[in-house]
Amino acid sequence: xxxxxxxxxxxxxxxxxxxxxxxxxxxxxxxxxxxxxxxxxxxxxxxxxxxxxxxxxxxxxxxxxxxxxxxxxxxxxxxxxxxxxxxxxxxxxxxxxxxxxxxxxxxxxxxxxxxxxxxxxxxxxxxxxxxxxxxxxxxxxxxxxxxxxxxxxxxxxxxxxxx
Length: 163
Prior knowledge:
By secondary structure, this protein is an alpha/beta fold. It is built from 6 helices and 5 strands; from the N terminus they run ααβαβαβαββα. The chain is globular, with a radius of gyration of 17 Å.
């Protein structure tokens, strides 16, 4: 039943949607997390309330709650490294302690986006695999890498935009 529904959904939407990236996102969404109701994003909860900004350094990764929250983080901080990850992803789990260390040791802010919870946000940034790391400097996206990078390389990326 799920297979026939998947094929129907992809074929039906592909005739209406010209952007092939959305079809890939739909396919991945169906096969990585079962849907309990009609609609891809029925489990996503939006909120307008985010903690007030302050000048204290952020020494741990921030878990992003949605597109507006990510935008607020990028706007509030000079350098932000965003980790698009999934709980089931082995390389993502290996990267987690590296990102926690970078949050403590660098001036950059580390933000984490769960691609299973925020599929639309991941699609907006062209995430096709996890982990995907996106670096923002002064509110603009300056780098994007798919796959786990070594700690030294990530440190250099962040420090190259904070100096």
